[in-house]
Amino acid sequence: MTLLLADDQSIILDGLEALLEQDEEVQVVGRASNGREAVERSKKLKPDVVLMDISMPEMDGIEATKAVLACCTGTRVLVLSMYDHHDLVHEIMEAGASGYVLKNVGKEELCRALRIVAAGQQYLTQEVRSAFDNDMRAKEIMGETGYHALTKREKEVVKLICRECTTQEIAASLFLSPQTIDTHRKNILHKLGVRNTAGLVKYAKERGWC
Amino acid sequence: MTLLLADDQSIILDGLEALLEQDEEVQVVGRASNGREAVERSKKLKPDVVLMDISMPEMDGIEATKAVLACCTGTRVLVLSMYDHHDLVHEIMEAGASGYVLKNVGKEELCRALRIVAAGQQYLTQEVRSAFDNDMRAKEIMGETGYHALTKREKEVVKLICRECTTQEIAASLFLSPQTIDTHRKNILHKLGVRNTAGLVKYAKERGWC
DNA sequence: GATAAAATACCCACTTCCGGGTATTTTTAT
DNA sequence: ATAAAAATACCCGGAAGTGGGTATTTTATC
């Protein structure tokens, strides 16, 4: 099984490589330190599985997953994430990932997950499984996904909010009316399903946007 | 050199262990998945160095560092962190850590840092060095540390703010007056040197408080 | 060329938050 | 026992953010 590792912290890449090389079936053929790199390397190396972190600069793991699956048939994505939040799991599984494991799994479970995903099946770690199933059932009943991706402009606004900018300051730096930023803020809160700035910043942090 | 690893993500512990065991001088004698555990294990195992993450549940790496150094003479702490923010570096170095390396270092630099710290010297990774030095010089001139730790109550308030609670809701859940929470909020912003809720939540996220 | 999505901008009303204080009581530490 | 720190609570005023709309222009997309 050929494997591409994508994580923005190189000591983790080193660690994972050292760990996974102990498994004879696994062969680490490449590494990437952000989403963009992960897509480029996938195109060239056509790995069986990409082990992907979500929180990455340049391009986050969610966008990268979509891009990898769009261009590399046969390549699967296994997500290795810090967080077990419903919305995060749902979002990336909808993007086409084959599995989701938390960073607090042991070596054994990670290797098991890799095999399952490489064989074309889904693997969700215990902590996220039940939540995700409930989520899916609710979706089927209600007939809607509930999730709406942010637009380019909205992401830009999020990043400036994370830098402690006020609406006025954001407007000034983007050469727009404060009322436009106000509209963006409202749409962002609604799309992300959060109540206020605190929820918004948490969301951004968990995706490596700041 | 005996080593204790402290990180809340066990796959990272596994990875670091696999990586560092390749170095014959290094011997990993224990692991901890939060600050409290790190202190307990240090007391028992008396390792030469504790390789400590900052973002951990129960007790963060900063408090844990203080506690370890208070009870284990001869044990040094090397911090392994995601962030290169001045305030974070300054805070933990003032707590007594012997070094600070980012998670995007390579294996070689990490091992080098471990040796230097074990020998009783300081090691700061390139990215934080100049910033920290400037910081220290500024402090010497102005004669003040600038940093003020949050109190227990203030941390409690921070956590509730991170859960998207409003001042009113926090007051209700702690059975206090909203004006008290307002005072806490203002003091928190001032102590942390941030402008608003966004900065506050970022701070909390980086320390693993939510 | 039609249609949808995104980006822009405005309205009103209300809540929440921030900046500047002051002051009392309770805990903690020496 | 006493000083210092923490926790509590209030004042005023203004800035910032949220919730509910509507509407126009620009940019993708089919």
Question: Overview of this structure, please?
Answer:
- Two copies of one chain form a homodimer.
- By secondary structure, chain A is of the alpha/beta class.
- Chain A folds into two domains: 2-137, Response regulator (Rossmann fold, 3-Layer(aba) Sandwich), CATH 3.40.50.2300; 152-207, Winged helix-like DNA-binding domain superfamily/Winged helix DNA-binding domain (Arc Repressor Mutant, subunit A, Orthogonal Bundle), CATH 1.10.10.
- Helices cover 55% and strands 13% of the residues of chain A.
- Chain A has helices spanning 10-20, 35-45, 61-71, 86-94, 107-118, 126-142, 152-162, 167-174, 178-192, 197-206; strands at residues 2-6, 27-32, 49-52, 76-81, 99-102, 123-124.
- Chain A has a six-stranded parallel β-sheet with strand order 2-1-3-4-5-6, with helices on both faces.
- The relative contact order of chain A is 0.11.
- The model of chain A has no long low-confidence stretch (mean pLDDT 91).
- At the A-B interface, helix 1 and helix 10 of A face helix 1 and helix 10 of B.
- The structure holds a DNA duplex (30 and 30 nucleotides).
